[in-house]
Amino acid sequence: MNLSELLKVRIYGDILRGKLTSNMINELDTWVNYADKMKSYPEFKVLEHENAGSGYNFFQLSIPPHLVYGTLTMAAIIKLIEFETMSDMRTYGISTRSGHLDYLDLWINYSYKNNENPIHIHPNGVLSCVIYYEKCNEIPTLFDDKKIFGEKGDFIIFPSDKAHSVPINDSNEPRITFALNIKKY
Ligand SMILES: [Fe+2]
Fold it and tell me: Residue range 9-33: average pLDDT?
C-alpha cells in the first residue's frame, strides 16, 4: 500500500496536505465524543490543555493516550512522515509532555464565536499537524504565505517553527480541530 496515495497527499512548499480515510475519521469522532462529554461537566476546566492558544479558544483538551495509541490515525500520520522524509522506522513519534497531566501533545481545539488563535509557533516538536474536523472550510489556518481551508478529515503537516494563526470565529458554530506535535528520537 502506498500511504501517500491512500491519504491523497499533496505537497505545497513546506506544507504537506492530506485526507484521512473514513475509518480514521471514525476515530476522530471517538475523540470528539470524549471531549464533548468532558466539556459537559461543570469542572471541565481542570482538564484544559495549556498552550499558546489557551485563553483565546474556549477549550483545549488533550486526547488521552488510551484513545490515541493503536489508532489508524496515529499510525498513518507517523508512518507518512517517515515515508515522506525517507526516515528509518521509529525516527518520529508524538511529542509527550512528561511531568504534565496532558501526557500526549495531541489536543482538540474548540473555537467558539469570537474565539481566535493569534500568531504562534509550536516549540515542543519538529513537525506539527492540524487535523480539521468542523467549520474549517470557512475559517482557515493562516500562514504568512498560505491560507488553508479544510474539510472534515483533511490534515496538514508543517515545520513546528512555522508561524500560523486562526482568525476570529464570527459564526455561531464552533470550529473544531485537532493539533499534534511530532518529535524526532
Ligand atoms: Fe498552532
Answer: 97
Amino acid at 13: G
3 CA to centre of ligand 1 in angstroms: 25
pLDDT of residue 88: 82
* pLDDT the model gives residue 20: 98
Q: How far is the CA of 62 from the centre of ligand 1 (A)?
A: 14
| CA 120 to ligand 1 centroid distance, Å | 6
* Residues 112, 159, 173: CA angle, nearest 5 degrees: 10
Q: Which range (24-38, 61-75, 76-90) has the least confidence? A: 76-90
Q: What is the pTM of this model?
A: 0.95
pLDDT for position 100: 66
Residue type, 3: L
Instruction: Domain 3-184: state its class.
Output: mainly beta
Q: What are the residue ranges spanned by the domains of the chain?
A: 3-184
d(CA 120, CA 181): 14
Q: How far apart are CA 184 and CA 128, in angstroms?
A: 12
Distance 123 CA to ligand 1 centre (A): 10
Angle (CA) 55-60-63 rounded to 5° is 160
Q: What is the CA(126)–ligand 1 centre distance, in A?
A: 13
